[in-house]
Known about the structure:
Layout: H1 5-19, H2 29-34, H3 36-42, H4 47-56, H5 62-69, H6 81-98, E1 104-110, H7 116-128, E2 136-143, H8 146-154, E3 156-157, H9 159-163, H10 168-174, E4 175-178, E5 181-184, H11 186-189, E6 192-196, E7 211-214, H12 223-236, E8 242-245, E9 257-261, E10 266-270
Parallel strand pairs: 1-2, 1-7, 2-6, 7-8
Antiparallel strand pairs: 3-5, 4-5, 9-10
Helix pairs in contact: 1-5
This protein binds S-adenosylmethionine.
Amino acid sequence: MPGSDADFAYLREVVLEESGNVLDSSRDYLFESRLQGLLHETGLKTIPRLVAALREQKQARLKRWLAEAMTVNETSFFRDAAAFELLEKELLPRLIWARESVCRLRLWSAACASGQETYSLAMLVREHFPRLNSWEVEILGTDISRDMIRRARAGRYQRSEVNRGLPALYREKYLRRSEDEWEVVPEIRNMCRFHERNLCEGLLPLEKYDGILLRNVMLYFPAQIRTRLLLDLYRVLPADGFLLLGASEQPGLPEHFQAELAENACYYRPLQAA
Length: 274
Ligand SMILES: C[S@@+](CC[C@H](N)C(=O)[O-])C[C@H]1O[C@@H](n2cnc3c(N)ncnc32)[C@H](O)[C@@H]1O
């Protein structure tokens, strides 16, 4: 039995409440395809039965599961080459210089999907900044989706995923063939850790992160959630830290973040309160 307009409206509401993601009613048809796995695994089988189960609230994790299933997990290694060039040529050299006395660097790939962004950061660090081998380097990847975090931790990718954006040099040095897939080598995996984290829950880490990548996720959030999240991130960035957003995203908080234009990319620097 297909879902009714009222069913889809309710599902959109639950997704917004759980993950902050706004879904457009013109794309309600996506529920059918994206929820196939959930409908099968829960035995609920149809959208109306799923809606009924959600309303009864008998399964605690069902709402979250629905929200996770509806996220867009599109990503790739070294997505947006200009941003990684900026990291390599400007942002990381400056941070490393500033952290010489503590020999510690912390980067956070917030909304890391299946981990390619996080591993790209680790490969970049390993390839271009060998002196960090003796530093304490932490590269954190977080995402709301349990499934994505499981995939990121596994560090195994299909050929098509590897062919999207990963330069041959990096593939040869930092991936190994494993049956039909490619696996990230332990040297790189050990630099990264992954956790489930909902960016809309306001439970951000208390520790400071020198650089935060929040790319291609804010566009799914309504303005109010975006602002709250950016203010949270502002609090975990040190004065000399940086925030990198997706190519088409902006924080829109001029009192908190200053846009810095590099040749082909842009990053945001936290401003000190006057
Ligand atoms: C389009 S992907 C972007 C991945 C990567 N940052 C990139 O630019 O390639 C968006 C990711 O945001 C995650 N996401 C959506 N809502 C989230 C939330 N409230 N908290 C944490 N992650 C969320 C999704 O699960 C998805 O993996």
